[in-house]
Amino acid sequence: MKSRRLKRLIGMLSLSAVFTINFTQSYAEEKITNNSEESTETSTLLDQDYQDIVEKPYHKVLNEWDDVSEGDSGFQAVISPSSFKGDKKENLITEDTRGYEKNVWHLGDDDELSFEVDIEESGLYHVGMDYYRLNEGLVDPELSIKVNDEFQYFESRRIIAPTYWENESNDFEENRHGNELVPNQVAIEDWFTMTFKDPNNEFAKGLLFYLEEGTNEITLTHASGEMLIGDIKVFSPEDIITYERYSKNFSDEQTKDELLVQEAEHPDRKNSSYIRPIARKDVNAVPYEVSSQKLNTFGGDSWTKGGQSVTYDITVLKEGLYNITLKTLQDVKQDVPVFRTIEINGDIPFKAFENYRIEPSNDWMNQTLVNEDNEPYSVYLEEGKNTITLTASITPLTPLVNELNEMLQSINTLGLSISRLTGNQPDMNRDWDISEYIPDIKERFTVWIDSLNSYAKNLNTLYGNKEDKTTDEVSLELLIQRLESLRAEPDELPNRLTELSEGSSSATQMVGDLISRLQESPLSLDRFYVHSENSDLPAPKKKFLNRMSNKVKEFVASFTAKTFDVEDTDSDVLEVWVGRNQQYVELMQNMVDANYTAQTGKEVRLSVMPNEQKLILANSSDQQPDVALGVSVGQPWELAIRGAAHNLREFDDFEQFSSKFSPGAFLPMMIDDEVYAMPETQDFYVLFYREDIMEQLDIPIPDTWDDVANILPELQRFGMNFYVPLSGTAGIKPFMFTAPFIYQNGGEIYSENGMQTAIDSQGAVDGMQFMTDLYTLYSLPLQVPNFYNSFRYGELPIGIANFQTYVQLLSAAPEIRNSWTIAPHPGVLKEDGTVDRSAPGSAQGGMIFEKSEKKEEGWDFMKWWMSEDTQVEFATNLQTLFGPEYMWHTANLDAFEELPWQEEHKSVILEQWEYLKEVPKIPGSYMVEREISNAWTDTVFYGQNVRASLDYSVITANREIRRKMEEFNYIEDGEIVEPYRVPQLETVKEWMNQNDEE
């Protein structure tokens, strides 16, 4: 170890200095001393905004249209499907129109339709349509729109036709503990009308399109989903009238003695299936019970995205003017108001209801809809049924969000400029004169700071001119302080990039976090009242003594309350621990009760397992469950090597059932040829890339690592780069990030007998060499705090990432939804012309304990739970009830094919899973993982030779392997007494193929 430390020190003082200091110094000096024209050209290239590569965003285009009139006032053109033009004549449907009284047009499978509209006056116009959703599942139909054969702005590439949902039942069912369950959601099959909007719903009135005088051709292209289209309307925008004008249209006679109470947890329809009722153990919420959970409120953090709407049907006995009072709680963003657009019978009645501000409250309060003088607004309701729609709105904050997005890109651009200047490896001991290379650097900071100060004032006005600063305003102040500190010492920026653009506490991260907060609009509703002006409303909170009394009752009831916590069960009940949160476990238990127990008569009790280490402790004290689910991929091996896990290959139908899963997923769950767990969920590492950017730069999508090396110069010429997961970890580089390079180059991690590592073999050395060359020769970024953000904003338009990034992009980056896709993991071209894409994909598994007396029952349950039908049903229910981000990446290949994911993405993931090769486990494998990471660090940071670094790593790793082999009785007195056969992928494929032949 001493020699290794000495070697590192020498490397740091010599090779590192030669590589880092001399290279970056000469590179920077060459850039700085170039003639002014070349410097200007380079600076311009570095500062190029990626948005210039694609269409401009809507808000920028709208500003350019500032002097364009809003079209011919009162104009409306209705274009029927009979006038549409398309590639397929059969798209025009004249008979099965689903209740539409005219012809309709079928749009799906990348179909395209176009139509012409004559405009008398050039200007800005809205476009809307009638539509009927045809596709099943959770995917909303989507299309893009071109005007005169061009996208007028970026958002026109993605127009969403929302699906409307209703509860399958108006009565809340109860689970086995007496707690109410969120009802299943059913898509409403009906015709709806929409105005085209941006995917983020930042502009509540809808998108405007510039149409020239004369004939304009509008083209709609299918993007996803399937639908029927009825009439399309092109119309001029109309201003919403003021309340004063609205009130003059109706009698000023207020309806007397009316009080209608609507429980918020029972909406009639909504445009997101996952805006759901919430059970709050709160005596002030109605209804409330001491001993059980009642779904008594609505929304909360599930009702926070702009555009999410919920509609209630209200029946009044007498037409007239009514007040509306909401019983609200806003404790998610505790000090910040939120906004809701309020529609009565499908229309916004007057301007004040367009983006009505709802004040924050840490406790329940009645908020009557009032004007600035605290005078209630009165709305006209007809006799009989009326609708009241509440829509989450972020429109008031949209200008600020857009400005912050532009600032974020500018700060990132400056960070990239400095990284390129310093060679991405700045010398802490070198003095830089950044102002000589970027003369206006202080002015840039000044512009950002002045803008932020202006934003702070606007935000304070928007939030109601409060004396106490909100969290958002404090975040702005901290950001301003950070930028002021950086502006004061611009020449220190090469050594302070973690404060500017490259760290979890950097200015870019602070801006990104603020943008995310501003786009959230959470609100909880208990109930609302439609009432006459002088109605006596129920108090929002119980009296103090009443609240205290119920708290005491709750405390007493908690000793006997039934929950999903781990507890003793009856001897005839199968006990299953699940390593997931209560939302998942509750849904799983409901499915078990409704399906498995109902069909088999076998009782199963699921419990939340808060910590995997509890499995080891429970087994040692004979309190282990029968089955454990949601266990990390390496945990079954840890239990099996100690005799605590049951070998699943002892079941007669194991090999038949296992054929439904990827062979490579079993490797870390095996000892010799014995299998101790089944894969339950499965991760994937694939290539993510921005189609818009790569297409506009004319950069091909790489298939191999040689292709990656070939595109890097062109990417870096535009200040962009390629991402590999190694850049996302600051410490140990785990197997899942390093193994692909070793496997794809023909290397192995261990020797065949498992008694030593094989990372010094030629294939492994070749893999390590390229893995380090990516940083030392090809200048990949050493650290990327958040690939999702860098990908979203275009700094890293291509890179390798996993399921987590996939979910983030789908659920939290709607503005680029149709601008990115995935491809298989880059690999190494073999002599036979094939590409080896071997990569791990570890996730969670399920196992049976050796001490269980219900092994057969446990195996029967695991087969049901991991079967195709059960997995598809669970995945669908999960997303329907809790939102699109609750994606379930089942390991059952047949089930995965049926999930409500994009078909082209599923095919890529399934293709990559053909190369799934997880790293097996042996005693001491953790040391091999650590030593590969050490070798990478020695080479990249200290300039050592790869093979020399691996030689030191092999010695340390083999010493630990032999020590652990002796601990588990594979070695005794230095001699091998029992062979440890490292699980092989070919072995698993062999038993699966044998089963297929049978």
UniProtKB/TrEMBL annotation:
Keywords: Signal. It comes from the Bacteria. Residues 1-28 form the signal peptide. Gene3D superfamilies: Galactose-binding domain-like, Periplasmic binding protein-like II. InterPro entries: Bact_solute-bd_prot1 (IPR050490), SBP (IPR006059). The keyword Secreted does not apply. The keyword Signal applies. PANTHER family: ARABINOSE-BINDING PROTEIN-RELATED, EXTRACELLULAR SOLUTE-BINDING PROTEIN FAMILY 1. This is ABC-type glycerol-3-phosphate transport system, substrate-binding protein. The lineage of its organism: Bacteria, Bacillati, Bacillota, Bacilli, Lactobacillales.
